[in-house]
Amino acid sequence: MLKALLKKQFWETASFFFLNSKDGKRRSTGAIVGFALLMLYAFGAVVAMFTMLSWTLCAPFVQNGLSWVYFAFMATLATSFSVIGSVFSAKSKLFEAKDNELLLSMPLPSWAILFTRMTGLYAMAFLFEAIVFVPAVVVYFIVAGFSMLPALFCLLLIFLMPFGVLAISSLLGWLIALITARFPAKNLITVLLLFAFFALYTVAYTKINEALNFILANGAAVGNVMQTWLFPFYLIGLAATGNALGFLGFFAIFGGVFALAYLLLSATFFRVVTMKRGGVQTKYKERTIKRTSAFSALLRKELARLKNPMILFNAALGSILFLVLCVFALFNTELCNEIVRSGVEKGEVAVILAVILCFIASSNMLTASSVSLEGETLWILRSSPVATKEIFAAKIATHALVTALPAAIAAAVVCALLKIPVGLAALVLFTVLAITVLCATAGLAINLKMPNLTWTNEVAVVKQSLSTMLGMFAGWGASALVIIGHFAFGKYLPAAGYLTIVGALFVVLAVPLILWLLKRGVKIFERL
Amino acid sequence: MLRIEHLSKSYGTKKAVDNVSLHIQKGEIYGFIGHNGAGKTTTLKACCGILGFEEGEIYVNGLSVKEDPIECKAQIAYIPDNPDLYTFMTGVQYLHFVADIYKVDSATRKERIRKYADAFELTESLALPIGAYSHGMKQKLAIIAALVHAPKLIIMDEPFVGLDPKAAHAVKGIMRELCKEGAAIFFSTHVLEVAEKLCDKVAIIKDGKLVRSGTMDEVKGEESLESVFLETAEDENA
Quick check: A82 and A125 in contact, CB under 8 A? Predict the structure, then answer.
């Protein structure tokens, strides 16, 4: 029984990698290799970042005899990173999977269904944790030299630490599911909780340099704080340096917390999954609604998807980051003034700001999952008397609107604080809007080539699809080219000219994509 | 109203629909029966332009589905067997979405929503998100959405599945009323008693081919539709 469930879970998780969602057939070897290479690149980049961080921290701690503080800190970082990476999926993966009812109708105990779902989350937690902790371990053994017992404990820690993450993210997911099932405004509550979480994360992220300097300068004091306030991570620190008692203590605490979380979730799983959602029954009141155009109806339909917090916080992450940037800039006016006083040329500042805004704008992936999100409801659009190009226009317009409005606010606020002249500020905005159009059209084209209409959970198409990943990397690649181009041609081209050319180039690149969408894209959509 | 001429549709090497021709006139209720996988849904989907086809032609009110799909769709309402609707909308939002797509003016849509939602006892639930609807409620909502633009041709795939007896009765009444007003209805069903009582004409499809079609009397004669249907199945097996 458990084997069959685990097999199902494995196929559900791996299907996006191996199977073509359109016809259910296996992807070509080339497509699988391409995807694997892309994943390797993405993970390689993050691993490289954490390896550099480990290099910075490891030697000073080892030299001061505080190796355990180094490990405790890296374990804290790995756990935080992993919790952030998996918490958003926990609720939907555990309690909102489409096949919950099917599985509950089968002679399967709740614990087995939960266990299977948790294996998927464990894999995710493991991946995020390993990205941080494995480089930390490798760097440590290069700096401090290899020894058997610490290596053995480190290896065990790599596999056991994700259970702690699993416990935390599952409990948070359970809490959100419980709260949202009891209150009518469940989406609002989820959005508020996620915003709170996101705000904390942003604050922590912006203070990371300050924190690193403090840690480097006050290693012993940090150790004391960890020993008192982050005791489980203190034990990890001890275990990683070869202390058997530390390892046993870690095992007891993490194992205990995980066991308790699993028992709690297992005991309440059936109730949470079958709980009637949206407690209060809203009565319908007849109203006259003004007729709008088909395009406007399609646009509203696309925008309504953002009521789903999972879609909002993943596909429209860039829009949230724009607002975060605004708040950050407004709370750090002194930093902005310092930049102004530093005498760096305004043009230079404008180009760098444009690059930052381009990166943020290209983090929005609304069109890259918009076709897949139609899923089983595709028949509604396909049987409606609207031209496919109008459907495409609504999808692109949604992406553009959701990105352009916060982008314009962010550009205006930051440009004003950095005292960038209006003309240059307008060109910064033009560049960001141009990349937005490019990303929107490219995302739609990619999703048309790689649609997944048979998902059991929206997470599969919004967070875990090749289409969104490619869309995001294409956008980031284009943004990176802006800064590379500036380094290459900055000497010959003033900032205003450079930004005009870059913006125009993005628009020009979008033209063939639009033409492709209108000809080939329409045919593909009509054959879905 | 609907003319299907030599329609053929294949999935790979399997011919799902093979040279099917049918003619449904205004005011007719046309039943389409056949075993599972016989080609009913494929034919219905091809008629509403959801599914492309290799051979043949389909005309809606004289317009080719291949050449003029948008105009054809504007005159059709399609109700699938399993109505997956936008769960992120409320019932009334969905109805207004459909009304906007079909360009129904405010007063007309208000009146039709009231009329059909009351007939299906769904008015109270229209403010709820569709995600909270039962299968039957979704089916009712899909039917109301189909009727909100007063289509000239209604294509329904198993419309009675999931409906309670009262709603099924209401659907039958509405079908007759619409046909009296000049609309045509083409629907598939496994409920042969309903087809026998409700339909003016009927067609039996087996393995993608039409085995019988015509008026109810022509198809069943003195026998029941069920016996005729079972006979055709046996004939093929013999």
Answer: yes
**B64–A contact, CB cutoff 8 A:** no
Report the amino acid identity of residue B65.
V
From chain A, the residues in CB contact with B131 under 8 A are 277
Which residues make Cβ contacts (< 8 Å) with residue A30, sequence separation at least 6?
A: none
Q: Residue B228: which of B184, B198, B195 has the closest Cα?
A: B195
Compute the nearest-CA separation of A302 from chain B (Å): 10
Which SS3 state, helix, strand or coil, does residue A292 take?
A: coil
Between CA A100 and CA A269 the distance in angstroms is: 11
Q: Whole-model pTM? A: 0.70
Distance CA A475, CA A360 (A): 9
Predicted local distance difference test score (pLDDT) of residue A207: 65
Q: CA quadruple A156, A158, A159, A164: dihedral positive or negative?
A: positive
> Which DSSP helix (H) or strand (E) runs through A390?
helix A388-417
List pLDDT tens digits, range A66-85.
888 889 889 988 988 888 77
Cα–Cα distance measured from residue A69 to residue A50, given in angstroms and rounded to the nearest whole number = 17
The answer to whether B91 faces chain A, any CB pair under 8 Å, is: yes
Strand partners, B155: B78, B186
The reply to whether residue B101 touches residue A297, judged by beta carbons under 8 angstroms, is yes
Model confidence band, residue A397 (pLDDT cutoffs 50, 70, 90): very high
Question: Could you read off the pLDDT of B208-231 as tens digits, one per residue?
Answer: 999 888 998 888 888 888 888 888
CB spacing of A289 vs B74 below 8 angstroms: no
Chain A CB contacts of B118 under 8 Å are: none
Interface check for A382 against chain B (CB to CB < 8 A): the answer is: yes
Q: How far is B144 from chain A (nearest CA, A)?
A: 14
B91 neighbors B122 (Cβ within 8 angstroms): yes
For residue A374 the two structure tokens come to: 């139609």
CA distance linking residue A288 with residue B183, whole number of Å = 27
Our CA-based measurement puts residue A492 at a distance from the nearest CA of chain B, in whole angstroms, of: 52
Query: Best interface-test mutation with A: which of B54, B78, B88 has the largest number of A CBs within 10 A?
Result: B88
Q: Give B17 to chain A, closest Cα distance, Å.
A: 17
- Of the candidates B227, B152, B93, the residue with the CA atom closest to the CA atom of residue A282: B93
Strands lying side by side in the sheet with B201-206: B76-79, B153-157, B184-188, B29-34, B201-206, B209-215
Average pLDDT, chain A: 85
Alpha helices (runs of H) in B105-134, residue ranges in sequence order: 106-119
- Residue B136 backbone class (left: φ over 0; alpha: ψ -120 to 50; beta: rest): alpha
